Amino acid sequence: MNSATVKTAAGYIAGLLFGLGLAISGMTDPARVLGFLDVAGAWDPTLMFVLGSAVGTTFVGYRLVFARGEPLFSANFQLPTKQALDGKLLGGAALFGIGWGLSGYCPGPAIASIGGISLPLLALLAAMVAGWFIAKRISQ
Amino acid sequence: MDWIASLQGLVGGVLIGLSAVWLMGALGRIAGISGIIGNLITQRPKGDSAWRIAFLFGLVSGPLLVMAMGGGLGNVADAPGAVIGAPAGGVPLMLIAGLLVGLGTGLGSGCTSGHGVCGLARLSPRSMAATGVFLLTAVATVYVMRHMIGGGV
């Protein structure tokens, strides 16, 4: 296999694991997500367990991976270099949170739910892509 | 508390973590959905798109695989075993929400996965700040929608 094929296969495996994780954890259900965010209602702790075990696994795994010095199929680790807590970061996060709270969808679960597509989900995905293009224009 | 649902959350979270670790270990990339897919769509980076497209297919095929396996491994609230839950509102609300999610994750350089999972695991101050802010505005939004307006969501 050439390296392009290996990289593509590696990308697929990562996406598949992510999609399996979202499905098994119930994050492909907006009601679970909104239940977690509804701290004044019938609070649903599921998302806390998902985020906790995902961060814990990644925390340990990243250290093992970084200790190796370089990735298996790529020249180097591409990590974010920005440091500033600027308005774009915090304002963007604030807007994202409002959209997340209105719908119960963040980008991963929204895309992973394409197998159960409905008109409202299609509308959300289309608007999300439009939002990405607008953000790109603003950032240029 | 629903212990089975929580246990499935833990197991699913480990899988998400393994995905993030694998992507860093194999390709040296952060497993942030808005970054991977958003940049794929808005920039179509030359020579850097194939793995993103493959990731997208994997992401969509995960839940489909769980459905195909049967055995009720999904974790939809109030529908034990179901895998994909219904949207919590109609088209107008989803259009507004989707625009905010796209705009916000685009400007804020990440979402629940990039900042929330990978960034927190890297102890990145930017990701900690972003995660705190989007959790706060999301909780506030749900509070307003459910307990002050009391409508739809």
Automatic annotation (TrEMBL), chain A:
Pfam families in UniProt: DUF6691
InterPro entries: DUF6691
Listed transmembrane segments: 9-27, 47-66, 87-105, 111-135
Keywords: Membrane, Transmembrane, Transmembrane helix
Keyword set includes Transmembrane helix: yes
Keyword Transmembrane on entry: yes
Name of the protein: YeeE/YedE family protein
Lineage: Bacteria, Pseudomonadati, Pseudomonadota, Gammaproteobacteria, Oceanospirillales
From TrEMBL, chain B:
Location in or out of the cell: Cell inner membrane
GO cellular component: plasma membrane
TM ranges: 20-41, 53-73, 93-117, 129-149
Family indicated by similarity: Belongs to the TsuA/YedE (TC 9.B.102) family.
InterPro entries per the UniProt record, alphabetical: Sulf_transp_TsuA/YedE
Keyword Translocase: no
Protein known as: YeeE/YedE family protein
PANTHER family, alphabetized: INNER MEMBRANE PROTEIN YEDE, SULPHUR TRANSPORT DOMAIN-CONTAINING PROTEIN
Lineage: Bacteria, Pseudomonadati, Pseudomonadota, Gammaproteobacteria, Oceanospirillales
Originating organism: Vreelandella alkaliphila
Alphabetic keyword roster: Cell inner membrane, Cell membrane, Membrane, Transmembrane, Transmembrane helix, Transport
Lipid bilayer topology: Multi-pass membrane protein
